[in-house]
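Weekly modeling sync, notes
Attendees: S.R. (lead), two postdocs, one rotation student

Agenda item 3: backlog of single-chain predictions. S.R. asked that every request posted to the team notebook include the full sequence so nobody has to chase files. The rotation student volunteered to paste the first one in as an example of the format we agreed on. Action items at the bottom.

Example entry:
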Amino acid sequence: MLGISISTVSRALKDHPDISDKTKLRVRELADALDYEPNTNAIHLRTSKNNLFGLIVPSVANFFYDSFIAAVEEECRKSGYTLLILQSGDDSRSEQDSVKLCRQNRVAGVFTCLTSGNTNIDLYKKLKNTGVPVIFFDKVPDDNEEIKVCMADAGSAIIAAGTIVEKNKKKLLALFGNPGLSITKKREKAFLEVTGNNLQVLVHHVDNPEEAKAVTAAALQQQPDSLFCMSDEILTGAMKAVLEAGLKVPDDIAVITISNGFIPKLYHPDITYVETSGYKLGKLAFTTMMENIAGDQAPKELIVESVLVPGGSI
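Predicted structure, as returned to the notebook:
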């Protein structure tokens, strides 16, 4: 229609410097008028390059992961990538299916958060062996040969435990996640090292809000004066039990948690929390992915530091 070659049109759409501004403008105007869109599948076949990243997350309804996804998606848009978001539902079988979908779609890289209790990362290793970089985030494997981006798991637990000790609490109910996960191991170890012999600590492990509620309801019979929750998910269940028991925060029981920041503000008074920002972690994960694609493939574990955000709960 414009009387120019296919290659000239292609270079004009890519803003190639060899094409005049006048020709670029004519090509773009006609492309807009025709609602022209490049065939991405054909481009991928021709170039053997796919500008698609896979992101496997337990649940998009979790505010931490929601903010992580938002950060990665923002960076993808800026860099010309698109994002395939897959939910594992915290189920290992679904996680495996998601990894296979990423492989079938020939993704350029994968961001993944392991499901609770999953210690087998063979599928991810096979993916890496085909040249697809894998960035583990939040719930990561113990394997030192992987690339991992995490919150300051030990640091956040130390801040929370130190805050409880400073308040001279005597009996603490501490709720942690799945004991098989590295995130739980790091937070629990650091937390208990700080509390030490300073107070009596009732430690329990829970996998979901329902378990957190049941465990908390039973433990409240021992009249703890303080409550620590390792995550937002655990906090929601524990607070149901606290409120149903008619306890007032902080008069009857003090509460502190590790959180992305949204859930603690839904209560009155605001729950004091140690911030773990999914958004900051997402930005770091994307930067790490792009460095990997550029050639930096060395195993590493990168950390986003945490800060205490005071509320009225302790």
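Discussion: group reviewed the output briefly. The longest strand covers residues 52-57.
Action items: rotation student to repeat for the remaining queue; S.R. to check formatting next week.
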